[in-house]
Write a structure and sequence with these properties.
The protein has about 425 residues and is α/β, with parallel strands linked by helices. Helix content is about 35%, strand content about 20%. It folds into two domains: about 5-105, Alpha-Beta Plaits, CATH 3.30.70.340; about 115-220 and about 280-415, Zn peptidases (Aminopeptidase, 3-Layer(aba) Sandwich), CATH 3.40.630.10. The protein has an eight-stranded mixed sheet with strand order 5-6-8-7-11-14-12-13, sandwiched between helices. It starts with a helix and ends in a 5-residue tail after the last helix.
């Protein structure tokens, strides 16, 4: 089956009475298990992919290389899935016994209507907080709309600048709707940066100009809160359909105009998770980000916050060739990883995304590095390594924020050691 896997899943979902906090229109995944599958070689990878063609399974990451994958499976297919895995020698273990139950725990945390980092929040609450924080620190913070999504939602940014002439830093999050921890962590870091009396953060606040885009993909983000927790893409119709109906959405982190469609899994399949779009920069959200990035002169650091995997990923995604200043970027990424580990001993791996994670092209970090000449450009894949995956409990937000804040402080120490800002 080539098509939008999770839309196929929906025909197997049983609708039941919902919790008060869980949206009544939300797709349910009662009894779905999440398995961790170890794919050891190319032959197993081929068979693993075939299973998605005739079973209702949700592969949560691209099947581009051998390695470990998390797969959500409907109750009616679990026995068949386990049997096939055994037949092909695929090692599996159950990491989530009831996905719906875990998702509902996440939604129960949404009951808070004021911004904090003990809960996940919806778009309205986050945008209200952005406006509030800009007013509170109005002497050196401003918020503005950089563009609009396909459905007409504003894409908001924050600029933090104590004095003109300081080096420009850009960080964004939630280009993938499913990755709630990314915007939660970024807004928490912004709060730390603005309010902390820690001299290290005060120095970062005053010595650099910061641009933040906490939610690049507002349509997908809202859809993941109101309709489908597993949603990844934006919400623009692709112009195609399959047996489940109209196919919506492009993976925005496959749509940037650098090595577009050169390498990656199912990027040319309009109904799949990782569809790269009909053309580079075809999506309004990507056009917005491109215009925004191009409007900022001499960006020194670009970071894209994602989940999950505990990774600091560097250019390139489309090839195994390393960029000419890779050693410098690796040193800076290792500085980030060292800072993260200093808090709770969370270990981050560092490397080029095409080797360390999986082959991909049209990604924002590669565009920023190769087209805009940003000297340090990276994707940060936040917690965890598969225990919860995309469904990290809200009670871990504060811990992730604390370790990432230390990581970013250390990143700037390493960057200065390498003369990035000279």
């Amino acid at each position: 089956m080539k098509g939008l896997i999770f839309l196929t899943i929906l025909s197997f979902i049983c609708l039941t009475t919902v919790m008060a906090e869980f949206p009544s229109t939300m797709r349910r995944l009662d009894g779905f298990k999440v398995y961790q599958v170890q794919v050891a070689d190319g032959e197993q990878l081929t068979e693993f992919r075939k299973m998605s063609e005739d079973l209702s399974v949700e592969i949560l990451k691209e099947t581009s290389l051998t390695g470990t994958y998390d797969v959500a499976v409907a109750p009616s297919n679990q026995e068949d899935f386990e049997e096939r895995c055994r037949y092909y020698g695929l090692l599996i273990k159950t990491i989530i016994k009831d996905l719906q139950n875990l998702i509902e725990q996440g939604f129960s945390s949404l009951k808070s209507t004021s911004m904090d980092w003990e809960d996940y929040h919806d778009l309205k609450t986050i945008y209200q907080w952005i406006d509030h924080i800009a007013f509170t620190y109005r002497h050196f913070v401003k918020t503005f709309i950089i563009g609009f999504s396909y459905d007409g939602r504003p894409i908001k940014a924050l600029k933090v600048q104590h004095r003109k002439g300081t080096k420009n830093i850009v960080i964004d999050a939630n280009i993938h709707a499913i990755e709630w921890i990314s915007s939660a962590t970024l807004t928490c870091f912004i709060n730390n940066l603005l309010s902390s009396t820690d001299p290290r953060l005060v120095a970062l606040r005053e010595n650099y100009t910061w641009y933040f885009v906490p939610i690049v993909n507002p349509d997908g983000f809202v859809f993941s809160h109101e309709k489908e927790r597993l949603w990844r893409k934006n919400r623009k119709p692709t112009g195609f359909s399959n047996s489940s109906g109209i196919c919506y959405g492009t993976d925005l982190n496959r749509n940037f105009d650098y090595q577009w469609m050169v390498n990656g899994y199912n990027m040319d399949v309009p109904c799949d998770h990782w569809y790269a779009g009909s053309a580079p920069d075809s999506e309004p959200e990507v056009k917005t980000m491109v215009r925004f990035l191009q409007s900022i002169p001499d960006i020194k650091v670009y970071l894209a916050m994602h989940s999950y995997g505990n990774l600091c990923l560097l250019p390139y995604g489309h090839t195994n060739e390393l960029p000419p200043n890779y050693d410098v970027m690796e040193y800076i990424c290792k500085g980030f990883a060292k800072g993260v580990a200093s808090v709770f001993n969370t270990q981050y791996l560092v490397g080029p995304s095409g080797k360390l994670n999986y082959p991909v092209s049209g990604a924002a970090k590669d565009y920023a590095f190769a087209v805009l000449d940003v000297p340090f450009s990276a994707t940060i894949e936040l917690r965890d390594r598969g225990t919860y995956g995309f469904f990290l409990p809200a009670d871990q937000i504060a811990d992730v924020c604390e370790e990432v804040t230390e990581g970013l402080i250390s990143l700037f120490v390493a960057a200065n050691e390498k003369g990035l800002f000279d």
